[in-house]
Amino acid sequence: MPYYKGALSEGPGIPTHLQFSQESAEADGAAFREAMSHLPAAVSIVATDGPAGRYGITLSSIVSVSDAPPTISFYIARRAYVNQVIKQNRQVSVNLLNRNHTGLAGVFARPRRCETGDLFAPALWQLSAGLPPSLIDARATLSATVQRTIEIATHTLMICYVKQILFGRDELPSLYFKRQFTTIKHGEDT
C-alpha cells in the first residue's frame, strides 16, 4: 500500500513536497507501535487514592469527550496493576504536565505503589484525605470520577466525569514523540 514520503514532482493539485512511495509495512503490532510513535501526544500523570491504595501512572491517552457534562477518557493496559486500583478507587486526578515535568513523567511511566511516599512528596503534590493527589505546579488538574470502563483488546477504556478543575502554571506542555519526552518550540517558525 503506497504512502506519501519526500517530494512529489507530478500530479495536478498535489503539493510538490509530497511523493508517493511504494514502501509499506505489514499492519502488525511492531509496525503499528512504530507508526503511533510519530503521533505527538500530551503527557499527563493520572493519580488515584482510596481503599485500593495511592498510585500514579504517566499516560498520553487522555481525550476530551464532552463538555456537557465535562467528560474525559483514557486507556490503561489491562495488565497494569494500576488498572485494577483505579477501578476499585473510582476516582482520579488527571495532571496535565508542563515541559519541566519530564523527569517526573519518567518516574511515573512505570507505575508502582507509593508505599514510602517518595513518589507523592508533599513538596510536589497536594494530598488530601479521600481525594486523589494533585500535582501542585501542573498546567491543570482535572479531578474526576470513573463512570464506565470498557475492555478493548489489551487495554481498558476509562470514561470519567470531571468534578473539579484546578488551573496551574501556564507553561509549554510536555509531549511524548518518537518514544521520548519533548515539548513544542513556542514562537519558532516551522
TrEMBL record:
KW Kinase (keyword) present: no
User: Residue ranges of the Flavin reductase like domain?
Assistant: 36-183
- SMART domains reported in the protein's UniProt record: Flavin_Reduct
Molecular function via GO: FMN binding; riboflavin reductase (NADPH) activity
Sorted alphabetically, the Gene Ontology BP terms of this entry are: pyrimidine nucleobase catabolic process
What are the alphabetically sorted keywords of the record? Oxidoreductase
Return the protein name: Flavin reductase
Species of origin: Gluconacetobacter sacchari
